[in-house]
Amino acid sequence: MAESSDVLLSQGFFSGKHDHIHLELRRSGLHLRKEGKKGVEVRLTYSFEDIIGASVVNDDGLDIWVCPFVNKGVVRKAGRRLEIVKLKMDGSTSPEFRAKTLNAFRLALVRGARHLDIGVNEEPSVRRFMVYINPYSGTKQAEKIMRTQVQPMLQAAGVQMEVVLSAHRGFVQEHAKSADFSGIDSILIVSGDGLVTEALNGIMSRTDFASVLQIPFAVIPAGSGNALAASVLHASKETYGIVEAVYVALKGSPVPLDIMSVTSAKRRIYSILSVTWGLLADVDIGSDKFRKLGNARFTLAFMQTLASLKKYPAKLSFLPAEAVGDVATDGANTETESVEGIALGLAAVPKIPSSSSSRRSLRRRATASNHSVESPSGGTASNGASNLQSYSLPKTVHLPAFSDGPPDPWVVEDGQFISVCAVMPSHLAWDTHLQNHASLADGLIHLTFIGRNASRSSLLTVFTELGAGAGEIATLATHQAHDLQHRPVKAFRLEMDPALSYLAVDGEHVEGGSIQCEVMPQFVQIMARLPAETPGSGSSTSASNEALASDSAANAAVAEDSVVGATASNDAPATTTHCASDDGAGDDFPSTVEEDSTADNKAEHKAHGNVSSQVDL
To answer: Contact, 595 vs 133, CB < 8 A?
Structure first.
């Protein structure tokens, strides 16, 4: 039994089934109890790790949004499930008492969900997200995913959103070049991997890129491959799904993420995921014509490409990680370089402090620098991308000039290849787990190349096992029959004829010839939960919890108990969004979350049936 001092708020409510519910808010979490069948008391407990937010509905209702981890059931997969606990106070009590009581619970729950002291009577700062959506990604479900699954969770958490819909390829890159990111807490991508790359490269075109990169990315899987989202969820020890991705975006912290500098003779771009050439790029780019099939498009394209298997001449050079040691693992190099004929100096990218108050302080300093950036000539560059004649970029550490041969201790493989694949995180696609031990910021490029002697049957075995999660690439590379090598590297160069095969960066076709690439350790930030607890260890759903949960929906009139220490402000933070109306509380906090039942989308994301439910106690 908890000590009375541990109970901060206590009140009697009623559920939609007219059952009397006693609600207690403690520093350990939210505790609900009612008398069950045969007089047995039934308890339901949620830790603050489970709670997303809370809202006052009309003048007598309290909606509590929770996202607990549920174990595997007969018809559901293990994973997080979005639930709404709907409670009502006695309508016969005075409006003043109800307002005071409900807002006391709301404020404490919101603060607890943000890991703030729930005993403090102060509204937390409002979080603001810049949300980029690609309505054409995958099976074109991104807008619906945003409307039915992402937006309700963000609104429940009190997040304000500036929503930008991509109109065409390159749209987000152009927008990010000049967007006002001041006061933004996170850049949320609702799409596949390609839109993250667009946003990153747009930011890297700004004079103030170092300041903007203090803002962490967050990724919601709404494309076909969704490798970055899968890698973040894997690193966070969460199952793969949209609810889990939103949960991590809301409850996680900024952690470092490696990126890759990809340079050709004419241009430089930045990758958050992979560079592929040969078979894998042919499958990736060649599958665009089957986009309506969702993730199945890759399987069909792979079988077609395998049937007409090609071998390509190329020269692959790389710098093994073991030959370098821990080089440039703390941000970017501090020298200058020339890119596309422009002399550039480096502004090192600072790491984001873990606390939200420190991040806000950094953003205030970043905002001040946005408006006046000193150029090498002594003048100033205005905010955004309006003056990009001269700005700072990081210099690569290990790459030689294109006119020079690879120096020692680089390794050179010259011959025919079926495919070359360079990946940084753990996944190449949401269902293709390449390496168990890859982290989001291990400072490595995981280079895999398949030689000319690999047979169709061995390739089919390799990719079938990877897709089924039955093996990782380093283990499969030990089988000589596969003619497959896996090497952790710091940099590599690929010299090839661009007319023979596609070259893909983060799943997008890139024109040009030979390239050389280098990892840029811990260069950006992404929302994740590291170190993360084992799923379910901080959650509270149990047999007694599920005995309380039902699928029926109802509202009821009710009775009163007592309130302890009920003091709170009545002013809830406003929510602004560009993709939905704000004409009523019911729109801001719907009683249920519409489940996306589109067959293509379920097949693409393997939705596990834990999208949402209403808890009527």
So the answer is: no
pLDDT in tens, 574-583: 333 333 333 3
Output the CA–CA distances (angstroms, integers) from residue 58 to 91, 103, 157, 159, 584, in the order listed. 11, 12, 18, 20, 10
Residues 36 and 43: their CA atoms lie apart, in Å, by 9
590: CB partners within 8 A, 6+ apart: 152
pLDDT for 325 equals 65
492, 317 contact by CB (below 8 A): yes
CATH code reported for the domain at 4-125+534-574:
2.30.29.30
Place of tokens 């009581």: 101
**CA 100, CA 239: separation in Å to the nearest integer?**
39
Q: According to the model, what pLDDT value does residue 89 have?
A: 93
Backbone φ and ψ for 486, nearest 5 degrees, come out as -125, 125
- For 230, other C-beta atoms within 10 Å of its C-beta total 24
- Sorted by where each begins, the domain ranges of the chain are 4-125+534-574, 269-327+397-522
Which stretch of 153-162, 270-279, 424-433 has the lowest confidence by average pLDDT?
424-433
The angle subtended at Cα 341 by Cα 318 and Cα 369, nearest 5°, is 95
pLDDT given at position 308: 74
Instruction: Identify which has the larger pLDDT, 125 or 430.
Output: 125
Domain 269-327+397-522 class? mainly beta
For residues 588 and 50, the answer to whether their CB atoms sit within 8 Å is: no
Q: What is the pLDDT of residues 60-103, one digit of tens each?
A: 999 999 999 998 776 678 899 999 999 999 888 899 999 999 99
Contacts of 347 (CB under 8 A, 6+ apart): 209, 210, 392
Q: What is the pLDDT of residues 363-376, one digit of tens each?
A: 433 333 332 333 32
Cα separation, 57 vs 590, whole angstroms: 10
Instruction: Compute CA 132 distance to the chain's CA centroid, rounded to the nearest angstrom.
Output: 12
pLDDT for the residue 290: 60
Ordered alpha helix ranges (H), 252-373: 279-286, 296-307, 356-370
Which two three-digit tokens encode residue 232?
A: 């973040």
Phi-psi region of 207 (alpha: psi -120 to 50; beta: other; left: phi over 0): alpha
CA angle 208, 210, 216 (to 5 degrees): 115
For the segment 147-166, the average pLDDT, to the nearest whole number, is 96
Q: What is the mean pLDDT of the chain?
A: 75
Q: What is the pLDDT of residue 130?
A: 98
Contact 574, 559 (CB under 8 A): no
204 Cβ contact partners less than 8 Å away, ≥ 6 residues apart = 270, 393
